[in-house]
TrEMBL record:
It comes from Stenotrophomonas rhizophila. SUPFAM superfamilies: Ribonuclease H-like. GO terms for cellular component: cytosol. Its main location: cytoplasm. Belongs to the YqgF HJR family. It is found in: Cytoplasm. This is Putative pre-16S rRNA nuclease. It comes from the Bacteria. SMART domains: YqgFc (SM00732). Could be a nuclease involved in processing of the 5'-end of pre-16S rRNA.
Length: 165
């Protein structure tokens, strides 16, 4: 009588971001990547930087500097989908960036639906301009505000994020 075959071991689950931790969020574009910081101790995130993207990819030195400075427990990357949930050209770039973050920095990385985050960021910027807290020249930081919106979405629904392995 032969023994039953043992099932193959399951692939280990990617590490998750601590619910009480700090995260850096990224809004990936073709020319710039907005960066924000947030934590579960609040419901809001703060725009902190814009990283340039060159022909050979993101300015990894700038990304590394931000990670060393802020020491996040995890990284949240916006997953660009169309309004009806389909792929759009920038999605491959964002997913590739998320995988590279995971490989380079060995931190948990998740993708979060970023639909309309740029619209929300523009609305926030317009309100701050109307209140006199922002000027037109501050518009370059709009990508970082979009990254803050992405973090806030993760903070409100962390289980909706897709872990990057």
């Amino acid at each position: 009588m032969s023994e039953p075959a043992t099932p193959a071991p399951a692939a280990p689950a990617p590490p998750t971001i601590r619910r009480d931790g700090t995260v850096l969020g990224f809004d990936v574009g073709s020319r710039r990547i907005g960066v924000a910081i947030g934590s579960s101790f609040g419901t809001h995130a703060r725009a902190i930087a814009v990283v340039d993207v060159h022909g050979n990819g993101p300015d990894w030195t700038a990304v590394e500097r931000l990670i060393k400075e802020w020491r996040p427990d995890g990284l949240v990357v916006g997953d660009p989908l169309t309004l009806d949930g389909q792929d759009q050209p920038n999605r491959k770039r964002a997913q590739g960036f998320a995988r590279q973050l995971r490989e380079r920095f060995k931190l948990p990385v998740v993708l979060v639906d970023e639909r309309s985050s740029s619209v929300e960021a523009a609305r926030r910027f317009a309100v701050e301009r109307a209140e006199g807290r922002k000027r037109r020249r501050d518009a370059a930081a709009l990508d970082a505000v979009a990254a803050a919106v992405i973090i806030e979405r993760w903070l409100s629904c962390p289980d909706d994020a897709t872990p990057v392995s």
